[in-house]
Design goal:
This protein has 305 residues and is of the alpha/beta class. The chain has ten helices and 15 strands.
């Protein structure tokens, strides 16, 4: 039998990819269901992948439209277990999996440090779905604490003679329909002019700014650039945070804010506060960010435990 791993692209896919060794036995076959993007094509190269139509957060019409495809995928691959880290795409697969008598496991995103998302609350009403929180603080029935993508990391001091920051990666994430121009404008004002900067700007319009931005990079190219950089500034998305942590960087995380139309809600504030509290990142708001913050963040590096 086969395990189906279901996740939206971005941080949801990055989490599930990182958690896979702890969730699925190495000898068991796996099929992925996600959206087709440069990230997913690169990250899942060589894997069996079923690409489904993009589902925006809280786009319940698309959830329903994707359901027949979900049934076909599960039947065609003889799936016996479905695991998802969300977001809305989980609603196309997990309820149907239970109706088909399959095991179903939903792992709430590490973005949700104080309780379940809308998707999680909806899945609470589906009998038989196993529900996992990545935080002990709110793991109570029907939610259990099982795994967390952040438990692998610890911050340690860098040597006193660390080199000056010369290469910087700025990544704003790739979620469709949302911009983060406020952060770009702030960074243009504070980044020293002699730095080599890679800008992954997603859907942010940078017209009129002295920025040579790339909308999105394949997974391997972005991770190579992060590994070669001296510092990381990112929106407070799980995928961007994990990319930095896995490369040994303590990033500066700046949350998108819903009142500026930068995301559907303010869950990125939860991510930034959680990682700052663990000393795995430095949390700053757009209007408070300074270059001294970046220099402070890189005085510590990240180790994998």
């Amino acid at each position: 039998m086969v395990t189906l791993l279901v996740a939206a692209t971005g941080g949801h896919l990055a989490q599930l990819h990182q958690l896979r060794p702890r969730l699925v036995d190495a000898e068991k076959d796996v099929v992925w269901a996600t959206f087709r993007t440069p990230q997913s094509e690169s990250m899942l190269a060589g894997e069996m992948v079923e690409y489904v139509d993009y589902t925006a957060p809280r786009d319940f019409r698309q959830v329903v439209r994707n359901t027949p495809r979900a049934v076909g995928v599960m039947r065609r691959h003889h799936i016996d277990t479905v695991i998802s880290t969300g977001s809305a795409i989980a609603l196309s697969f997990l309820p149907i999996a239970r109706l088909m008598g399959l095991a179903a496991h939903y792992i709430e995103s590490a973005a949700r440090s104080d309780g379940p998302s809308t998707t999680g609350r909806m899945l609470e009403k589906v009998p038989g779905v196993k529900l996992s929180s990545q935080y002990r603080s709110w793991a109570r029935p029907p939610w259990e604490y099982t795994v967390s993508v952040f438990d692998d990391f610890v911050a340690v001091p860098r040597p006193q003679d660390q080199p000056k920051i010369k290469k910087l990666v700025v990544t704003l994430g790739t979620i469709e329909g949302y911009h983060f121009r406020s952060l770009v404008e702030r960074l243009v004002a504070i980044i020293p002019p002699d730095l080599e900067v890679l800008w992954q700007v997603g859907n942010t319009d940078v017209k009129g700014l002295p920025v040579l931005g790339v909308k999105t990079l394949p997974h391997h190219e972005l991770h190579a650039a992060v590994a070669e950089s001296d510092a990381i500034i990112a929106h407070a998305g799980i995928g961007s945070a994990l990319a930095a942590l896995n490369a040994g960087h303590r990033p500066v995380l700046v949350p998108r804010r819903s009142h500026r139309g930068e995301h559907v809600d303010d869950h990125q504030l939860q991510i930034a506060r959680e990682l700052d509290g663990r000393d795995l990142a430095l949390h700053r708001e757009v209007e408070d960010l300074t270059w001294a913050d970046v220099e402070s963040a890189v005085r510590r590096r990240i180790q994998t435990m």
